[in-house]
Amino acid sequence: MTAKRIDLNSDVGESFGVWRRGNDEALMPSLTSASIACGWHGGDPQVMRRTVRLAKAHGVRVGAHPGFPDLLGFGRRPMQLSPGEARDYLLYQIGALWAFIKAEGMRLQHVKPHGALYHMAASDRLLSEAIAGAIAEVDPTLILVGPPGSALLSAGQGAGLRTAQEGFGDRTYNEDGSLVSRSVPGALLTDPDALVDQVLLMIEGKVRAITGRMIPIAVDTVCLHGDTPDAPAFATRLRERLALAGVEAVSLEELLVDQVS
Amino acid sequence: MTAKRIDLNSDVGESFGVWRRGNDEALMPSLTSASIACGWHGGDPQVMRRTVRLAKAHGVRVGAHPGFPDLLGFGRRPMQLSPGEARDYLLYQIGALWAFIKAEGMRLQHVKPHGALYHMAASDRLLSEAIAGAIAEVDPTLILVGPPGSALLSAGQGAGLRTAQEGFGDRTYNEDGSLVSRSVPGALLTDPDALVDQVLLMIEGKVRAITGRMIPIAVDTVCLHGDTPDAPAFATRLRERLALAGVEAVSLEELLVDQVS
Amino acid sequence: MTAKRIDLNSDVGESFGVWRRGNDEALMPSLTSASIACGWHGGDPQVMRRTVRLAKAHGVRVGAHPGFPDLLGFGRRPMQLSPGEARDYLLYQIGALWAFIKAEGMRLQHVKPHGALYHMAASDRLLSEAIAGAIAEVDPTLILVGPPGSALLSAGQGAGLRTAQEGFGDRTYNEDGSLVSRSVPGALLTDPDALVDQVLLMIEGKVRAITGRMIPIAVDTVCLHGDTPDAPAFATRLRERLALAGVEAVSLEELLVDQVS
Amino acid sequence: MTAKRIDLNSDVGESFGVWRRGNDEALMPSLTSASIACGWHGGDPQVMRRTVRLAKAHGVRVGAHPGFPDLLGFGRRPMQLSPGEARDYLLYQIGALWAFIKAEGMRLQHVKPHGALYHMAASDRLLSEAIAGAIAEVDPTLILVGPPGSALLSAGQGAGLRTAQEGFGDRTYNEDGSLVSRSVPGALLTDPDALVDQVLLMIEGKVRAITGRMIPIAVDTVCLHGDTPDAPAFATRLRERLALAGVEAVSLEELLVDQVS
Asked: What pTM was computed for the model?
């Protein structure tokens, strides 16, 4: 019998200049993978350096978290890019982060698009192919993280990349497996125990949709949001409950080691 | 007897978005090395891609041309950065360009700071050490390009990098080997033949200072400016005169192959 | 019998930093109104100053040409803004230009959204109301320029603004009065005489659609594009042909003097 | 006998996009003047709107707080601008803020340069004249805020502006009246009572230099920093102590009503 395993990732390195965001120091010890902003929607070179070092100090694997060229909107506003623009914007950001990872003697593990880019790519085939193409160009051994069943992960597989399906512990789902829009009441789970329960269900391959019906979902990694004051406490608690349930938290690299790249 | 050899470099990829600058297509065939802007003072991801491809098509070796975070001022205005800021800004830009070079199957050859960063580093030891340190962190086999006898090249040597001394065919020199400030009358050579003559002198290890006195100068690479309408014609003429004079134009990598890195 | 009158406007001041765009100096003498970029999609403070002075020197009335916060994409890429964001982004840009107009002793005449903002507002009621609301807040005597029959001009009228209907001499129209997409063959008129003929037709209140059918169109101002090398020559010729046809070129302010604001 | 009066100002509106900075809501009730960031070193259009409204709600007079084009460095890094650049950058930012003030039915009271621009202007005559010139161009009734005895205030007087001398309650002074550099131990006063004492001394026209010697200083306005967690509590306390000491807190406009503009 195989032990149950899951990757725990978070979007980190989102501070910019004098402005702080998130609490990466407190959250990092609970993670197995960290997705680091690359300076376009958040992050800057000094924040990138600090965040890579912090991940290294805690043995956390790192990935690039590229976004739209929209610092003012934190990359959360849909923008219409051509596939060529998207491809080159991804390359630029992945490369920029790569330099810090190289300087700190680490290896890049994965790429996870940020914000509106992530959500648009979930259903946009051309955009997804551009993203996957950029990743394959720079390093075909990288893992592409995206929503289960998305155009993004299909494009990743089409480009020969390993892919990881991401679930959200604090978001509710529609019956078709998509996320309930943030504007809908009940879209966000705020009770810590409910979050942990949802993560444990996801590891079993299922989640209770907002309608109450249990639906199947396949999840390799669970995203922990770091931008709430109690995120670190929640993450600690999640790690404890996972341990009690016999679930091992491992990096994507370890989890997908057998996936053909 | 060794054949005389020189590298011919130019700053390219300085267009941004809808705005064009320079005439890279016409200039590239005359170069042996190209220094590509990295999106901070000029250039953008799509321009970087195009420029790397253009260099590849002409067999021209490529380097990173990082600058200050000052698009509005084209990186030409002195800014006071801490060494830590400078180091991380360099890493970011080198990494961003690296991704395009990797995607196009090329290898990065050199790094040459741009504009005010280049000129400040010429005499600022702390800034130069930050620049050299960033390059050594990302790839210690890279070549650092700077002014002959500068703090920048000393720092490069101190960091174990190979270094290349750069001369300017179209700028006049003071007796101490420094460039005459652009604000001084006679700072710029505009007669094409005078430029070619100066380059040929530099290859012989000397240059006539603005005072008229001949001074020694050691030059591995000559910078051709591409932002004048007649730059491509001049570059073609220079290549012809170099050939007639028995001077071989080779990339920095070929030129410095014997330099201990 | 009333003389026929038309305003001739162009988008100017689109240079940025060291990068030049358009040929404002040559075009300005042919204009009666100038729409000046405000630094977000193009333009910068020094370009704004120069352009305001240039308009003043030629007796050309000036307006603000605000766009999306997307310098890299020249404001041509659709972005999804909330009405509150759009309103405040407009205010910011109008105010910035206002300062230069005030410094040069002129008065702001109109506001014309740029690029994707203009095209999205043509059919987006909420976005148009945000734009019109911003203009009314800063100065309710300003004229809002937009496409004939658009949501933008309706919103302007709803906010109590004077509005001006804009035609394009060099773009072809669909039968419903909308512009043929640039991606469709025949979308752009390139023959100078065909352009002039279309402008003269527009002044008569009609235009030949791409299908060949003549359709009605009401136009207060015709937009001359300045980003082609022959734009100034074309503009001069247009002014001559207008004069021959007894059409007077006047600013929007003169044209709309009787419109209730 | 005239009642003692002082203006209390703070730099506000320094949040940007999703990033918060300072606690303007808590601090505003204690202020008589607010200097609002204009989007270049901090602030954005929505933050500017919110901040203007907040000031209005508390009856606080507003001024522009323009800075260098350096969001990444929060305008704190010296940059070398030409006088023409400085003048146009000031105009742009003042105009942008003006639009929000106009929209909210307020009037702009003052201009206070930010960060490195403020400190460089203190001793740089050309830069100061550029700043003062921009303000005079846009509205000669505005008040220019700067360090006592600085080149900045001299330039303001030369341009016919009213000027206000600013003291810092939480910074120590050298014997020549300049601020002790932040890098020197003892540069910052952190004890709330010591701060209040220094402000009360300043109102009396003197301050104890870091050497211990009492020196004369003339102060119209005292700057309260809002970027520390306890800033609002300190501000409240200061207002109470001022009231006890019979000092009236009034806006710069009220304070300087008799100064010839």
From this structure: 0.96
